[in-house]
Automatic annotation (TrEMBL):
<comment type="function">
    <text>Involved in the gluconeogenesis. Catalyzes stereospecifically the conversion of dihydroxyacetone phosphate (DHAP) to D-glyceraldehyde-3-phosphate (G3P).</text>
</comment>
<comment type="similarity">
    <text>Belongs to the triosephosphate isomerase family.</text>
</comment>
<dbReference type="GO" id="GO:0004807">
    <property type="term" value="F:triose-phosphate isomerase activity"/>
</dbReference>
<keyword id="KW-0413">Isomerase</keyword>
<feature type="active site" description="Proton acceptor">
    <location>
        <position position="172"/>
    </location>
</feature>
<feature type="binding site">
    <location>
        <position position="178"/>
    </location>
    <ligand>
        <name>substrate</name>
    </ligand>
</feature>
<protein>
    <recommendedName>
        <fullName>Triosephosphate isomerase</fullName>
        <ecNumber>5.3.1.1</ecNumber>
    </recommendedName>
</protein>
<feature type="binding site">
    <location>
        <begin position="12"/>
        <end position="14"/>
    </location>
    <ligand>
        <name>substrate</name>
    </ligand>
</feature>
<comment type="subunit">
    <text>Homodimer.</text>
</comment>
<dbReference type="InterPro" id="IPR022896">
    <property type="entry name" value="TrioseP_Isoase_bac/euk"/>
</dbReference>
<feature type="active site" description="Electrophile">
    <location>
        <position position="100"/>
    </location>
</feature>
<keyword id="KW-0324">Glycolysis</keyword>
<dbReference type="InterPro" id="IPR035990">
    <property type="entry name" value="TIM_sf"/>
</dbReference>
<comment type="pathway">
    <text>Carbohydrate biosynthesis; gluconeogenesis.</text>
</comment>
<comment type="pathway">
    <text>Carbohydrate degradation; glycolysis; D-glyceraldehyde 3-phosphate from glycerone phosphate: step 1/1.</text>
</comment>
<dbReference type="InterPro" id="IPR020861">
    <property type="entry name" value="Triosephosphate_isomerase_AS"/>
</dbReference>
<keyword id="KW-0963">Cytoplasm</keyword>
Length: 270
């Protein structure tokens, strides 16, 4: 469980924050979290495309990893409006988020398209952060597990176990995300995280699949962060609104980090 020894904490700023606001946010977050060793935590931020170069220059990557919210799956071509892996490499990105629920549901991206992006991100040595999650309707029909297994199996189709050593997964139930979202209970989230863990282990073997970090996202807030991070299968939190103010994000980080470490210590003792 090498990779999962540390906690994963990140935010996606969606279509919010100008370059000036993103840079100010990153600088403040960096300053507030300076004393926390990065051996204990993987801290990352996924801002808007136009902010990326300035964002990367504003804080060291050893403190805060940065990623893009989406990526085209070709290096170049007649794809108006798309951003290529070469452009993201030039902007100094480390992570590429693939399949965020808003991409899948607002922009109608398919599992097969997410797969092309995952493969392309890996070819260009990015860490793909594959987001998966069922809709409320799929949950009500009792097919959440099947949907997630499908999203994972299609999303990671053609990915080798060696490549899987760099991927991250976020479970973000569609019904839990955003202003109208209802946060998943910690029990439900943990149950689904176990399904995801088992699917990854089945796909990449117990050692490599068992070590892929799986983060929970969807209306994480200062009240529920504590309960979620105590759950055995949750390796980190992927936060929207509650992390967009650096002081609030810092206070969530300081609440969950010791709880996470206590959990890992207890696990190691059994
Ligand atoms: P909220 O925390 O605002 O629900 O957003 C979560 C999310 O979409 C992170 O990618």
């Amino acid at each position: 469980m090498e990779r999962r020894k540390k906690i994963y904490l990140g935010t996606n700023t969606k279509m919010y924050k100008t370059t000036e606001q993103t840079v100010a946010f990153l600088k403040r977050l960096n300053e507030l979290t300076q004393d926390i060793s990065r051996d204990r935590m993987e801290l990352f931020v996924i801002p808007s495309y136009t902010t990326l170069t300035a964002a990367r220059e504003s804080v060291p990557r050893e403190s805060i990893l940065l990623g893009a919210q989406n990526m085209g799956w070709e290096e170049q071509g007649q794809f108006t409006g798309e951003i290529s892996p070469l452009m993201l490499r030039e902007a100094g990105m480390d992570i590429v988020m693939v399949g965020h629920s808003e991409r899948r549901h607002v922009f109608r991206e398919t599992d097969a398209e997410e797969n092309k992006k995952v493969l392309c991100a890996l070819q260009h040595a990015f860490r793909p952060l594959l987001c998966v999650g069922e809709t409320a309707e799929e949950k009500d029909f009792g097919i959440a597990e099947e949907v997630l297994r499908t999203q994972l199996k299609v999303g990671f189709h053609g990915v080798t176990p060696e490549q899987a050593k760099t991927v991250w997964v976020a479970y973000e139930p569609v019904w839990a995300i955003g202003v109208n979202g209802v946060p998943a209970s910690k029990e439900y989230a943990d149950h689904i995280h176990k399904v995801i863990r088992d699917t990854l282990a089945e796909r990449f073997g117990a050692e490599i699949g068992g070590d892929i970090p799986v983060l929970y996202g969807g209306s994480v807030n200062p009240q529920n962060a504590e309960g979620l991070i105590r759950m055995p299968y949750i390796d980190g939190l992927f936060i929207g609104r509650s992390a967009w103010d650096a002081d609030n994000f810092n206070s969530i980080i300081r609440t969950v980090l010791p709880l996470f470490e206590e959990k890992r210590k207890k696990e190691a003792a059994v």
